[in-house]
Design a protein that fits this description.
The chain contains 21 helices and 16 strands. By secondary structure, the chain is α/β, with parallel strands linked by helices. It folds into 3 domains: 7-211, Rossmann fold (3-Layer(aba) Sandwich); 227-371, Tyrosyl-Transfer RNA Synthetase, CATH 1.10.240.10; 398-618, Aminopeptidase, CATH 3.40.630.30. The strands form 3 sheets. An 8-stranded mixed beta sheet has the order 9-10-11-12-13-14-16-15, with helices on both faces. Helix 10 crosses helix 11. The radius of gyration is 27 Å and the shape is globular. Residues 402-556 form the N-acetyltransferase domain. Its EC number is 6.1.1.1. It is an enzyme of class 6 (ligase).
C-alpha cells in the first residue's frame, strides 16, 4: 500500500497512543529506506473475543494507514497448549470463529479485512523440520523459570505444554519474517523472551510495541474469562445497555473507569481513524463508516454527548475533538458517569451492529460458533459456579456440627467478605494481599488472577453453623482460608490465607476450620481424606497470634526464613514487617521473616489427630 506520509509521520502514526515502544529505532531505519515494515499481532483463540480486541485493531488500522504489511497470527497451537482442556478439534473451530469475528471487527472500524494477512500458526509450525528444531533449541536454552516469568498465564502452570508457548510466539516473529510484533502490555514478558532468545538462535532482534489494556466494566482489565467484565462482540443491544448501565464508579474518578476506558481506547480512536481515512481510495477504506458525532457537530468532532437539560433548553449537545478534553470535563464534574452511559452504549451498539450483521448473514460463522463454544457462558450474577475447579485434588464441602467449609464463590461470598474486612484492614497486616477497595477489586484483581487459574490453590468460605443463616442456608460467613502450594508429586499442601472476621475470633471458628482442613488432608482415603504426607503453616515472625495458634493445634516449628518476603509499599498499607530497617530504604517497602511449621502424616497418626479433635470440641 502506497502512502504520501513522510518517514517521521509514518513512525508517529505507528507508535501513537502506545504504552511502550521497544527498539523503535529498528522501525525508523526501515522507514528511512523508504520500505514498508512488516508488523505482526498474535492472539490465541481461547475464550470468546470481546470488545477489548478492538483496542489492538485500532492500531492495526493505523498500521494499514501507515502503509505497513500487517499480519494477524492466530495461535491455534499456542491456544491448545495453554488451554489443554479443550481438544485440538475444538481449538480449530475457535480459530475459525476468531477469523470471522476479527475480520468483521476490522471492517466495522472501517478497514477492509483484505488489507491484513490472516495466518494460522500451525501452518508454519508444521511446515518445516527447522521450526521443530528451533523450538527444541529454545527448550535447551531456556529454563522453566524463563517461561513462567513471561506472564500471569504461565507463572503457576503445572503442565508442561504451557511452558512451550513463549517459544512458539518468539519463533513466529522469525517464521513470519516480521520487523516488529505488537500486542497488549500483558505481553511484555513474552516480548522480553523473544528479545532474549531469538538472537541466541542467530536470528535478528525485533522491535516490540505495546498498547494499554482496556479496563473492565467491573474494575481490573476486560477479560474473556470474566463475563461481567466484558462486552462480547455479539452481545445484543439490550445486553450492552444493561452492562453499561450497571457500571459503578465515583464521579470524577479516572482510574479503572470502564466507561472512560471505552471512550479513550475504542470509540474516540475509531472516530479519529474514520475521519483520517475519509477520501482514501476504494479498497483502502469502507466509505460508510462515520465518527460517533451528531450531524451538526463541528469539523473534527470525535464524540458527541447529548445532555438532557431543563424543559426550556431541551437537549444540549457537547462536542469533543479529543479525549483529553472530555476527561477534563469529567474530572471537573461537568460530566457525570450517568450522562456518559447512554451515548457510550449507543455508540457501542452502532459498532457491534455491523459485526452482528456479518454474523447473521454468514451461515458458516453461525455453525462454527456452536462447535467452538458448545456451552453457554455463565453470565448471570446469581449463577453459583465454583471457581476452584482447577484444584489438583477433589474439592467438596467439609463439615461438622459447628462449622462448614464450602468452596469460596465470589458471586456469593465476595461482597460479604469485603464488608466484614473493610473496617478491619489489620487482618491483612501480615499478608501480601489486601486491603481491597471493593468486592470487585478482590474478585477481579486477586481471586480471578491469583486463585482461580492456580491448580495448587483453593479457597474455602468458613460458615459458622451456630449463627443465623446469612450467606449460606446453614449459617453465617465467618472468614476464609485456603489450601495453597499443593503438590501431588510430593503429597503436600499448606494451610494459608487464614482470615477470621473479628466478631468470630477467639471462638470455635478458627480451630474447627483448620481442623477440618487437616482431617481432609492427612486422613487416609479409607477415612475420606487425601492421605497427604505433609501440611505446612507459614506465618510472619511478628504475628504472635498465628504462631500460638499453630503450636496449640500441634504444628511443629521447623525454622525461620529470614527476609523471606517483601511487602512493596507496605508502610502505607498497614503491613507489619520484621522490624528491621532496610539499608537505604524509604520505609515503605518492608521485609518479612517467615516462621515455618508443619504437621506430617506420622505426627497425625501418633496422636496428632486426637489432639486436634479435642481442641475442636473444646473451643
Amino acid at each position: 500500500m502506497s502512502t504520501t506520509l513522510s518517514a517521521q509521520q509514518r513512525f508517529d502514526l505507528i507508535t501513537r497512543g502506545l504504552e511502550e515502544v521497544h527498539d523503535g529505532d529498528l522501525i525508523k531505519a526501515i522507514l528511512a529506506e523508504g520500505k514498508n515494515p512488516k508488523a505482526m499481532w498474535a492472539t490465541a483463540p481461547t475464550g470468546r473475543p470481546h470488545i477489548g480486541y478492538l483496542v489492538p485493531f485500532v492500531k492495526l488500522a493505523d498500521f494499514v494507514h501507515a502503509g505497513l504489511e500487517v499480519s494477524v497470527d492466530l495461535g491455534d497451537i499456542y491456544a491448545f497448549c495453554v488451554n489443554y482442556k479443550h481438544s485440538l478439534e475444538v481449538v480449530s473451530y475457535r480459530t475459525k470463529y476468531y477469523q470471522f469475528v476479527m475480520k468483521a471487527a476490522l471492517e466495522a472500524i472501517g478497514v477492509p479485512a483484505i488489507r491484513v494477512n490472516w495466518i494460522i500458526e500451525s501452518s508454519h509450525h508444521l511446515r518445516t523440520k527447522q521450526y521443530f528444531l528451533d523450538q527444541m533449541r529454545i527448550c535447551a536454552l531456556a529454563t522453566q523459570s524463563d517461561s513462567r516469568e513471561t506472564g500471569e498465564e504461565l507463572c503457576n502452570a503445572t503442565m508442561l505444554s504451557p511452558l512451550l508457548c513463549p517459544g512458539f510466539q518468539a519463533l513466529d516473529e522469525e517464521y513470519l519474517g516480521v520487523d516488529f510484533q505488537f500486542g497488549g502490555a500483558d505481553q511484555r514478558g513474552l516480548f522480553a523472551f523473544a528479545e532474549r532468545f531469538l538472537p541466541k538462535l542467530g536470528y535478528k532482534k525485533r522491535a516490540h510495541l505495546m498498547n494499554s489494556m482496556l479496563p473492565g466494566l467491573t474494575n481490573g482489565k476486560m477479560s474473556a474469562s470474566i463475563p461481567s467484565s466484558k462486552i462480547d462482540c455479539l452481545d445484543t443491544p439490550d445486553v450492552v445497555i444493561k452492562k453499561i448501565s450497571n457500571v459503578e464508579c465515583d464521579d470524577g474518578e479516572i482510574a479503572k473507569n470502564g466507561i472512560l476506558g471505552l471512550l479513550k481506547m475504542v470509540l474516540m480512536p475509531i472516530s479519529r481513524i474514520r475521519l483520517e481515512m475519509q477520501g482514501k481510495g476504494e479498497g483502502e477504506v469502507i466509505a460508510d463508516r462515520h465518527p460517533f458525532s451528531s450531524e451538526d457537530a463541528p469539523e473534527g468532532t470525535l464524540f458527541t454527548i447529548d445532555i438532557k437539560a431543563d424543559a426550556k433548553d431541551g437537549v444540549v449537545h457537547k462536542h469533543y475533538r479529543s479525549y483529553e478534553e472530555l476527561e477534563q470535563d469529567y474530572k471537573e464534574k461537568k460530566l457525570s458517569l450517568q450522562e456518559l452511559k447512554d451515548p457510550v452504549a449507543k455508540a457501542i451498539n452502532q459498532l457491534l451492529a455491523l459485526i452482528r450483521e456479518s454474523y447473521e448473514s454468514n451461515e458458516e460463522w453461525r455453525a462454527v460458533e456452536k462447535l467452538a463454544y458448545p456451552e453457554p457462558e455463565e453470565s448471570s450474577p446469581s449463577t453459583v459456579v465454583p471457581y476452584d475447579v482447577n484444584f489438583c485434588y477433589p474439592v467438596r464441602d467439609l463439615s461438622n456440627d459447628r462449622i462448614k467449609l464450602t468452596p469460596f464463590i465470589p458471586s456469593v461470598h465476595s461482597s460479604s467478605f469485603f464488608n466484614h474486612t473493610n473496617p478491619h484492614p489489620e487482618v491483612y497486616a501480615h499478608m501480601p494481599l489486601g486491603p481491597f477497595t471493593s468486592p470487585a477489586d478482590f474478585t477481579v484483581n486477586f481471586f480471578d488472577v491469583v486463585v482461580r487459574p492456580n491448580p495448587t490453590m483453593t479457597f474455602y468460605a468458613v460458615i459458622d453453623k451456630t449463627r443465623p443463616p446469612a450467606e449460606d442456608t446453614e449459617g453465617a460467613l465467618a472468614g476464609i482460608l485456603a489450601y495453597m502450594n499443593t503438590s501431588t508429586v510430593n503429597q503436600s499442601t499448606e494451610i494459608g490465607f487464614v482470615i477470621t472476621f473479628p466478631p468470630f475470633q477467639r471462638t470455635h471458628v478458627t480451630s474447627n476450620a483448620v481442623g477440618l482442613l487437616l482431617q481432609y488432608a492427612l486422613d487416609p482415603p479409607a477415612k475420606g481424606g487425601l492421605g497427604l504426607r505433609r501440611v505446612q503453616w507459614q506465618t510472619s515472625s511478628a504475628n504472635g497470634t498465628s504462631m500460638r495458634a499453630a503450636e496449640r493445634m500441634g504444628f511443629r516449628k521447623e525454622g525461620v526464613l529470614r527476609w523471606d518476603r517483601v511487602f512493596y509499599g507496605g508502610g502505607s498499607k498497614g503491613k507489619q514487617g520484621n522490624g528491621k530497617q532496610v539499608p537505604k530504604g524509604d520505609g515503605e517497602d518492608l521485609g518479612r521473616d517467615t516462621v515455618v511449621y508443619s504437621i506430617c502424616w506420622d505426627d497425625w497418626e501418633e496422636g496428632g489427630r486426637e489432639k486436634m479433635v479435642g481442641i475442636m470440641e473444646r473451643r
